Amino acid sequence: MLTVLMGLILGSCDDYLSEASGDLIIPQTTSDYAELLQGEGYMKLNSNQRYSDAFTDDVKEGRPVFGLGDVVKQYRGYYTWQREMEISQDGSLVKDESWELLYKVIMTANITLDQINESSGTEAEKQFVSGEAYFLRAFCYFQLVNLYAKPYDAATAATDPGVPINLNANPENQLFYRESVQKVYDQVEEDLSKALDLFNQANKESTIFHANADACNFLFCRIALYKKEWDDVIAYADKVLANHPNLYDIAKYDFTNKKVVKNFVFYSEENSEIIFNYSTTNVNAYSLYDGKNWRYLAVSDGLMDLYGNNDNRKFAYVTGKASSGPPPPPFGTAKPGPFPPSSSDVAQNKMNSKSGIYHSAFRVAELYLNRAEANAEMTKNEEALKDIKYLRRHRIKGPDFIMPGDVKQLIREERRRELCFESHRWFDLRRWDQPRIEHVFTEYGDKGEEIKIKYVLEQNDPAYTLQIPYHEREFNPGMKINERPDREAIN
């Protein structure tokens, strides 16, 4: 992999293209820029997966984390929605890296777009790589505005603070200020339209490890969903599903067979519904552990209870006990702790050490769910249920019966089952009704006794929007901050 501009990773903006740098390789060919986008673009895309699940109702405390007491204390601010979530329990800074990483991908895209026409390569190659750069920039701004700004509301988007927009390859330490949510969305859609045009002009085949026209239409579909533009959701879903209608049939697997359980990995080359694969960020990151590690966050009872006994996602998407034997002692003691409920042993299993190069993805199931939600919002319930039933035929082993009831709620629950631990839940909660969530955090007394502390994210809580990271506020004190309340424990 071509390594370009170490300053892009570690240094300041004005050093990115300093040819005197010993760490610098100047891209010369279109292929060089393609490698730049791969290493410093696609690989860094899903930085928010490092923590977004920890905010949601899909997780709870797991077993005590043997040897990881300090880690638990470090990330308490994230799990308990603190006003300054980067401040750990001991007062140290646990950096929110998403802002910085996503803006560095944006800078990579800006540099590529600024320089690509000077590189050696065919016109089709330049068009394709430029399309990738526009796509990456659009996706990054879409993630940023949905992490650090209020959810899109057509009535207030023109005045709600969004995130800064930089389209310049040489900002020279320029200070940027927050544009409106509407302006950010407009920029996202403008970049995505340019990407789509360039991909169509290039007419170049690619693998699932590169964005393409289908990836653009997929992201347009998701954007329309967040904006509640239901007709557009359906139109874009139809476009992509015309090319990629098939779902990965996990209903065919026998998860009572231990060998199947041991070897099955959802994110793999066998998964035919992956349209676009990106990132190297494992969804476990520092919120969910799997393998043989003791977990300090586990899958919540609320999520597990949604899966029926014959729903193969219950086995394909999560994993059971990580290890056998007695639990570790509470931190700082020699006393063995009591066994917690068995659900505390459950962690995500969509990707693990066997996933290899398959990580985050745009996949077909989301399109069926998006279209179903749009149809339900327009009271086209039969059309909505048609997509849900088609999805479930590839997930449920044996007979399936959908209980009559609120179709919108049914689709929301199906979305939660299907897309868990893929960085959707937090964004879905934000754009729906922003419900009340409780998290329990365990501390230990001087004698090793457990002290259970409850924290609550209230309905429509301002903390549904993340704070601008500390390092950005320190560098740019004029940056408008988001108001988040102090979060006290409820005993």
Task: Note down, in words, how this protein is organized.
- The model is unreliable at 1-23, 282-295 and 321-344 (pLDDT under 50).
- The chain has helices at residues 6-10, 30-40, 69-74, 76-79, 98-115, 123-148, 181-202, 213-227, 230-243, 258-263, 301-304, 313-316, 364-377, 381-393, 407-419, 425-431, 470-475, and strands at 59-61, 274-278, 297-299, 318-319, 347-348, 360-363, 437-444, 450-457.
- The chain is mostly helical and 491 residues long.
- It is globular.
- Helix 8 (213-227) runs parallel beside helix 13, helix 9 runs antiparallel to helix 13 and helix 13 packs antiparallel against helix 15 (407-419).
Describe the secondary structure blueprint for this structure.
Elements: H1 6-10, H2 30-40, E1 59-61, H3 69-74, H4 76-79, H5 98-115, H6 123-148, H7 181-202, H8 213-227, H9 230-243, H10 258-263, E2 274-278, E3 297-299, H11 301-304, H12 313-316, E4 318-319, E5 347-348, E6 360-363, H13 364-377, H14 381-393, H15 407-419, H16 425-431, E7 437-444, E8 450-457, H17 470-475
Antiparallel strand pairs: 1-3, 2-6, 4-5, 7-8
Helix pairs in contact: 2-5, 2-6, 5-6, 6-7, 7-8, 8-9, 8-13, 9-13, 13-14, 13-15
Shape: globular
**Which blocks of ≥5 consecutive residues have pLDDT under 50?**
1-23, 282-295, 321-344
**Terminal CA distance:** 52 Å
The neighbouring-strand order within the major sheet is 1-3
* Tally of strands: 8
Number of helices: 17
How would a textbook summarize the main sheet? 2 strands, antiparallel
User: Which strand-content bin applies to the residues?
Assistant: 5-15%
**Structural class assignment:** mainly alpha
